[in-house]
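Board notes (copied after class):
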Amino acid sequence: MPDENSVMHRVMQHLPWSDFERLVTERGTDDDERGFRSKDHLVAMLHAQFAGAMSLREVVTQQQSHAAHLYHLGVRPAARSTLAEANRGRTSELFADLFRLMVSRLRRGQRRGLAETTYLIDATVVALPARTAGWARFSATTCGAKVHVVYDAEDGRPIYAAVTAANVNDITAAHDMPIQAGATYVFDLGYYDYLWWARLDAAQCRIVTRLKSNTRLDVIEEQPVPPGSSILSDRIGFLPLRQAGRRDNPMGDAVREVRVRNDAGTVLRILSNDLDAPAQEIADLYKRRWAIELFFRWVKQTLRIKRFLGTSENAVRIQIATALIAFLLLRLAQATQTAITSPLAFARLVRSNLMHRRSLDALLRPPDPPSRANANQLVLL
């Protein structure tokens, strides 16, 4: 079997290489290259994600031990100092561009109506070493970055991501997020901002979020609730006309409050600008936020995003971008086979067979026994 049929090669064949080379030309990231091209850099960082490497030295050692396989991928192993320098100096925007390009191509193939589109918005904090540069320091001893994500609940993947220092408020980052007119957006109290809600409402988006416990609602209508359900009340009313500092509230249209008791017994005030959908549908939409929490946990634990290979802002941004690209590649590769349905099991099998020459639908089967000639060679050794 030819070397190019390694598991890593099969996963990475879903990368749009021609588009990546175009991005490299546009960004000029190879103009001053000294033997370590952008493609070499991307493959090294993706190798780190797939293999779960915990240090630059581990990445380099693994690549050098599989130099022949990398040759058939069209790349060369990196030296530790070269990879460290590339993480510091090659712009992270190249990798962010690639992530955005892959997302846009996937979205074009969805063929799904906006009424069926549900986007979950949230952010997660990743701790950084104390020696990290000042951009991520928010106390004398603590450093961190925050990854802000819009997650497609139907397709189970991110469609937008931005990285900031951990002390940047969620709603500050949300104002830079693109808005898909007509879609449903579900988010939590970190995005409590009437002006941003009004922007979504003006774009004909459905909003599902939480009301603070002390927010007044001027009720104009009480609606019946399903008997025996977790829905406690369903009311339509208006938010306060004035905000702090006596500013006018831009969210002037009627809204809906659905009070629901969750599995832990806590009563939640769920707000929506959808006045017509069943109350249970609104409650169920808010409950779907759990999917983005699972995504964050999966990326941190499976792709080891909790451990960074560089401390500069550029290196951190590169690693987060390549982790998201690796996530998309794993999902695309998993879709080409039917034997492994669990994303976590598939990722683990890819990791343990990364440089083996196996098809993806054979990852669950034990490896073939060595041929008689190879067995004789092993005995002689």
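Comment from the instructor: The longest strand covers residues 118-128. Residues 188-288 form one domain.
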